[in-house]
Amino acid sequence: HYSPQNTRVAVGGPGGVIIGGKEFAVIAGPCAVENQQQMTTVVDAVVAGGAVMLRGGAFKPRTSPYSFQGLGVAGLALLAEQRSRTGLPVVTEVVTPEDVERVAEESDMLQIGTRNMQNFGLLREAGRSGRPVLLKRGMSATVEEWLLAAEYLMHMGNGDVVLCERGIRSYERSTRFTLDLSAVAEAKRLTHLPVVVDPSHSTGRPHLVGPMSLAAAACGADGLLIDVHTDAAAALCDGAQALDGDRFAALVDQLKPVVEAV
Ligand code: PEP
Protein backbone atom coordinates (compact mmCIF):
# COMPACT_ATOMS: atom_id res chain seq x y z
CA HIS A 1 0.00 0.00 0.00
CA TYR A 2 2.99 2.28 0.47
CA SER A 3 4.64 4.50 -2.10
CA PRO A 4 7.13 7.25 -1.17
CA GLN A 5 5.45 9.72 -3.55
CA ASN A 6 2.14 9.49 -1.74
CA THR A 7 0.84 11.95 0.81
CA ARG A 8 1.34 10.90 4.39
CA VAL A 9 -1.10 12.42 6.81
CA ALA A 10 0.17 12.94 10.35
CA VAL A 11 -2.57 12.75 12.97
CA GLY A 12 -2.00 13.75 16.58
CA GLY A 13 1.24 15.69 16.20
CA PRO A 14 4.72 14.34 16.99
CA GLY A 15 4.59 10.72 18.05
CA GLY A 16 1.11 10.41 16.57
CA VAL A 17 -0.08 8.23 13.72
CA ILE A 18 0.92 8.54 10.08
CA ILE A 19 -1.81 7.47 7.66
CA GLY A 20 -0.45 6.62 4.22
CA GLY A 21 2.98 5.67 5.60
CA LYS A 22 4.53 2.24 5.87
CA GLU A 23 2.35 1.23 8.80
CA PHE A 24 -1.19 0.09 8.14
CA ALA A 25 -3.44 2.23 10.36
CA VAL A 26 -6.18 0.45 12.30
CA ILE A 27 -8.60 2.98 13.76
CA ALA A 28 -11.26 1.55 16.07
CA GLY A 29 -13.84 2.41 18.69
CA PRO A 30 -17.57 2.60 19.17
CA CYS A 31 -19.89 4.02 16.57
CA ALA A 32 -21.16 6.52 19.14
CA VAL A 33 -19.76 7.87 22.38
CA GLU A 34 -22.37 6.82 24.96
CA ASN A 35 -20.95 7.29 28.44
CA GLN A 36 -17.68 7.16 30.34
CA GLN A 37 -17.88 3.51 31.31
CA GLN A 38 -18.68 2.38 27.77
CA MET A 39 -15.81 4.46 26.41
CA THR A 40 -13.29 3.12 28.90
CA THR A 41 -14.30 -0.50 28.30
CA VAL A 42 -14.35 -0.25 24.52
CA VAL A 43 -11.16 1.79 24.35
CA ASP A 44 -9.32 -0.68 26.60
CA ALA A 45 -10.44 -3.47 24.27
CA VAL A 46 -9.31 -1.75 21.07
CA VAL A 47 -5.98 -0.70 22.55
CA ALA A 48 -5.36 -4.27 23.75
CA GLY A 49 -6.34 -5.49 20.28
CA GLY A 50 -3.85 -3.28 18.46
CA ALA A 51 -5.68 -0.10 17.37
CA VAL A 52 -3.34 2.84 16.76
CA MET A 53 -6.07 5.45 16.77
CA LEU A 54 -9.55 5.83 18.29
CA ARG A 55 -12.90 6.60 16.69
CA GLY A 56 -16.22 7.58 18.26
CA GLY A 57 -19.09 9.81 17.21
CA ALA A 58 -20.28 12.60 19.49
CA PHE A 59 -22.43 14.24 16.80
CA LYS A 60 -24.33 11.46 15.03
CA PRO A 61 -26.00 12.12 11.66
CA ARG A 62 -28.85 9.61 12.07
CA THR A 63 -31.25 8.73 9.28
CA SER A 64 -34.17 8.91 11.71
CA PRO A 65 -34.73 11.94 13.94
CA TYR A 66 -36.01 9.49 16.59
CA SER A 67 -32.68 7.64 16.84
CA PHE A 68 -29.98 8.54 19.36
CA GLN A 69 -28.35 11.70 18.03
CA GLY A 70 -25.13 11.52 20.02
CA LEU A 71 -24.01 13.31 23.18
CA GLY A 72 -22.70 16.34 21.29
CA VAL A 73 -20.25 18.49 23.21
CA ALA A 74 -20.39 16.18 26.25
CA GLY A 75 -19.35 13.32 23.96
CA LEU A 76 -16.36 15.28 22.70
CA ALA A 77 -15.16 15.66 26.29
CA LEU A 78 -15.50 11.91 26.92
CA LEU A 79 -13.53 11.19 23.77
CA ALA A 80 -10.84 13.71 24.69
CA GLU A 81 -10.58 11.98 28.09
CA GLN A 82 -9.76 8.69 26.32
CA ARG A 83 -7.18 10.47 24.20
CA SER A 84 -5.39 11.72 27.32
CA ARG A 85 -5.70 8.36 29.06
CA THR A 86 -4.27 6.32 26.16
CA GLY A 87 -2.15 8.85 24.26
CA LEU A 88 -3.84 7.73 21.03
CA PRO A 89 -5.20 10.29 18.55
CA VAL A 90 -8.95 10.47 18.01
CA VAL A 91 -11.14 11.03 14.97
CA THR A 92 -14.73 12.18 15.34
CA GLU A 93 -17.44 13.39 13.01
CA VAL A 94 -18.49 16.99 12.59
CA VAL A 95 -21.87 17.63 10.99
CA THR A 96 -22.28 21.39 10.87
CA PRO A 97 -19.90 24.20 9.83
CA GLU A 98 -20.54 26.01 13.15
CA ASP A 99 -19.18 23.07 15.15
CA VAL A 100 -15.93 22.68 13.19
CA GLU A 101 -13.85 24.90 15.46
CA ARG A 102 -15.05 23.17 18.63
CA VAL A 103 -14.56 19.66 17.24
CA ALA A 104 -11.14 20.61 15.90
CA GLU A 105 -10.08 21.84 19.35
CA GLU A 106 -11.13 18.63 21.08
CA SER A 107 -9.98 16.02 18.57
CA ASP A 108 -7.05 15.20 16.29
CA MET A 109 -8.92 14.56 13.06
CA LEU A 110 -12.30 15.63 11.70
CA GLN A 111 -14.56 13.07 10.06
CA ILE A 112 -16.93 14.17 7.31
CA GLY A 113 -19.59 11.49 6.99
CA THR A 114 -21.18 9.97 3.94
CA ARG A 115 -24.28 12.14 4.28
CA ASN A 116 -22.20 15.31 4.24
CA MET A 117 -19.64 14.55 1.56
CA GLN A 118 -21.08 17.30 -0.61
CA ASN A 119 -21.95 19.73 2.17
CA PHE A 120 -19.69 22.35 0.66
CA GLY A 121 -20.01 24.87 3.51
CA LEU A 122 -18.87 22.14 5.92
CA LEU A 123 -16.02 21.13 3.61
CA ARG A 124 -14.83 24.72 3.37
CA GLU A 125 -14.87 25.14 7.14
CA ALA A 126 -13.08 21.81 7.67
CA GLY A 127 -10.57 22.92 5.06
CA ARG A 128 -9.80 26.00 7.15
CA SER A 129 -9.62 24.11 10.44
CA GLY A 130 -5.96 23.14 10.39
CA ARG A 131 -6.91 19.57 11.34
CA PRO A 132 -6.53 16.50 9.12
CA VAL A 133 -9.82 15.33 7.63
CA LEU A 134 -11.19 11.83 7.07
CA LEU A 135 -13.52 12.24 4.10
CA LYS A 136 -16.04 9.45 3.70
CA ARG A 137 -17.38 8.72 0.27
CA GLY A 138 -21.00 9.75 -0.23
CA MET A 139 -23.15 6.63 -0.44
CA SER A 140 -24.29 7.67 -3.91
CA ALA A 141 -21.18 9.52 -5.03
CA THR A 142 -18.99 8.57 -7.94
CA VAL A 143 -15.25 8.37 -7.40
CA GLU A 144 -14.92 11.64 -9.31
CA GLU A 145 -17.41 13.42 -7.03
CA TRP A 146 -15.58 12.04 -3.99
CA LEU A 147 -12.26 13.36 -5.25
CA LEU A 148 -13.79 16.74 -6.07
CA ALA A 149 -15.12 16.91 -2.50
CA ALA A 150 -11.52 16.28 -1.38
CA GLU A 151 -10.46 19.15 -3.66
CA TYR A 152 -12.75 21.48 -1.66
CA LEU A 153 -10.69 20.71 1.44
CA MET A 154 -7.39 21.08 -0.37
CA HIS A 155 -8.53 24.23 -2.13
CA MET A 156 -8.98 25.80 1.31
CA GLY A 157 -5.35 25.01 2.05
CA ASN A 158 -5.80 21.69 3.87
CA GLY A 159 -3.71 18.98 2.24
CA ASP A 160 -4.15 16.52 5.13
CA VAL A 161 -6.97 14.55 3.62
CA VAL A 162 -7.62 10.83 4.03
CA LEU A 163 -10.28 9.26 1.81
CA CYS A 164 -12.59 6.61 3.31
CA GLU A 165 -14.60 4.12 1.25
CA ARG A 166 -17.65 3.15 3.33
CA GLY A 167 -19.94 1.42 0.88
CA ILE A 168 -22.36 2.67 -1.73
CA ARG A 169 -26.05 2.15 -2.35
CA SER A 170 -26.92 -0.69 -4.65
CA TYR A 171 -29.94 -2.96 -5.13
CA GLU A 172 -28.37 -5.51 -2.77
CA ARG A 173 -30.11 -5.84 0.59
CA SER A 174 -28.15 -8.67 2.21
CA THR A 175 -25.55 -6.10 3.23
CA ARG A 176 -26.22 -2.61 4.56
CA PHE A 177 -24.35 -1.00 1.66
CA THR A 178 -22.12 -2.42 -1.07
CA LEU A 179 -18.43 -2.06 -0.28
CA ASP A 180 -16.75 -0.81 -3.46
CA LEU A 181 -13.20 -2.05 -3.16
CA SER A 182 -12.47 -1.26 -6.78
CA ALA A 183 -12.93 2.40 -5.81
CA VAL A 184 -10.13 2.00 -3.27
CA ALA A 185 -7.66 0.77 -5.87
CA GLU A 186 -8.92 3.41 -8.30
CA ALA A 187 -8.61 6.26 -5.80
CA LYS A 188 -5.08 5.06 -5.01
CA ARG A 189 -4.27 5.13 -8.72
CA LEU A 190 -5.85 8.53 -9.40
CA THR A 191 -4.59 10.41 -6.34
CA HIS A 192 -1.70 10.70 -3.93
CA LEU A 193 -4.02 10.62 -0.92
CA PRO A 194 -4.23 7.82 1.63
CA VAL A 195 -7.36 5.68 1.40
CA VAL A 196 -8.90 3.77 4.28
CA VAL A 197 -11.91 1.46 4.38
CA ASP A 198 -14.84 1.23 6.79
CA PRO A 199 -15.88 -2.44 6.75
CA SER A 200 -18.45 -1.86 9.51
CA HIS A 201 -20.81 0.76 8.05
CA SER A 202 -20.43 -0.72 4.56
CA THR A 203 -21.48 -4.25 5.42
CA GLY A 204 -23.53 -3.70 8.56
CA ARG A 205 -22.69 -7.32 9.43
CA PRO A 206 -20.00 -8.32 11.94
CA HIS A 207 -19.24 -11.61 10.13
CA LEU A 208 -18.33 -9.64 6.99
CA VAL A 209 -16.06 -7.15 8.75
CA GLY A 210 -13.14 -9.61 8.86
CA PRO A 211 -13.23 -10.75 5.23
CA MET A 212 -13.75 -7.21 3.92
CA SER A 213 -10.92 -5.89 6.10
CA LEU A 214 -8.52 -8.48 4.72
CA ALA A 215 -9.68 -7.70 1.19
CA ALA A 216 -9.23 -3.96 1.80
CA ALA A 217 -5.66 -4.53 2.95
CA ALA A 218 -5.02 -6.77 -0.05
CA CYS A 219 -6.22 -4.14 -2.51
CA GLY A 220 -3.92 -1.46 -1.16
CA ALA A 221 -5.89 0.39 1.52
CA ASP A 222 -3.80 2.36 4.00
CA GLY A 223 -5.93 1.47 6.98
CA LEU A 224 -9.34 0.61 8.39
CA LEU A 225 -12.04 2.31 10.45
CA ILE A 226 -13.74 -0.39 12.53
CA ASP A 227 -16.71 -0.26 14.93
CA VAL A 228 -16.07 -2.12 18.18
CA HIS A 229 -18.43 -2.47 21.13
CA THR A 230 -18.10 -4.68 24.19
CA ASP A 231 -21.89 -4.86 24.69
CA ALA A 232 -23.24 -4.65 21.17
CA ALA A 233 -26.77 -5.66 22.16
CA ALA A 234 -27.01 -2.56 24.34
CA ALA A 235 -25.27 -0.16 21.92
CA LEU A 236 -27.16 3.07 21.25
CA CYS A 237 -25.97 3.19 17.65
CA ASP A 238 -25.28 0.50 15.03
CA GLY A 239 -24.57 -2.28 17.55
CA ALA A 240 -25.49 -4.84 14.90
CA GLN A 241 -22.30 -4.19 12.94
CA ALA A 242 -19.81 -3.94 15.83
CA LEU A 243 -17.07 -6.46 16.57
CA ASP A 244 -16.38 -7.42 20.17
CA GLY A 245 -12.89 -6.98 21.58
CA ASP A 246 -11.79 -10.59 20.94
CA ARG A 247 -12.92 -10.62 17.32
CA PHE A 248 -11.24 -7.28 16.78
CA ALA A 249 -7.93 -8.51 18.24
CA ALA A 250 -8.08 -11.68 16.16
CA LEU A 251 -8.67 -9.62 13.03
CA VAL A 252 -5.70 -7.33 13.72
CA ASP A 253 -3.52 -10.47 13.95
CA GLN A 254 -4.95 -11.87 10.71
CA LEU A 255 -4.23 -8.61 8.92
CA LYS A 256 -0.48 -8.69 9.57
CA PRO A 257 0.57 -11.21 6.90
CA VAL A 258 -1.75 -9.60 4.33
CA VAL A 259 -0.34 -6.12 4.94
CA GLU A 260 3.19 -7.49 4.70
CA ALA A 261 2.43 -9.26 1.43
CA VAL A 262 1.05 -6.18 -0.37
C1 PEP B 1 -19.59 6.77 11.26
O1 PEP B 1 -18.47 6.36 10.88
O2 PEP B 1 -19.85 6.96 12.45
C2 PEP B 1 -20.64 7.03 10.28
C3 PEP B 1 -21.80 7.57 10.63
O3 PEP B 1 -20.32 6.64 9.03
P1 PEP B 1 -20.98 6.99 7.62
O4 PEP B 1 -20.94 8.47 7.50
O5 PEP B 1 -20.08 6.27 6.68
O6 PEP B 1 -22.37 6.42 7.65
From TrEMBL:
Residue ranges constituting the DAHP synthetase I/KDSA domain according to the UniProt record? 16-256
For whether the record's keyword set contains Transferase, the answer is yes
Kindly state which keywords UniProt assigns to this record, in alphabetical order.
Answer: Transferase
Membrane-spanning intervals of the chain: none
Q: Which domain of life is it from?
A: Bacteria
This chain belongs to which protein, by name?
3-deoxy-7-phosphoheptulonate synthase
- Write down the species: Actinocorallia cavernae
Q: Name the gene that codes for it.
A: aroF
Parent sequence residues shown: 75 to 336 of 351
